[in-house]
Design brief:
mainly alpha, 4 helices
Amino acid sequence: MKLQKNECWESRNPRSLQCRLQVIEKAIRKLNGCYRQVENLHPSGASEQDLLNQAKTLLMQDPSYKKGFKFDHVWSMMKDTEKFKDCSSKKNSSKSKLLLCVLRVGQSYS
């Protein structure tokens, strides 16, 4: 499917596109975090759409997203990409590495 440029579309420079993508990525990350929080509650019988709706409600508690999530058309494409996968295991492993390092340093002083 090839998109044809609509005559009323503005031409955007690379910096403008980069800034727009950053706004979209930030919103996707935020919603993804809310989705993971809701998912970790393990609601019984909840469908993926139910989880998403609850995540959007949670997201709207953030003052920056009071009007809601406005990138639904992007969410379905980006939610499963590697960049937006849950990285808590990476955080946990780096925290445990830091803890091990602190413990080793503490042992060397003993």
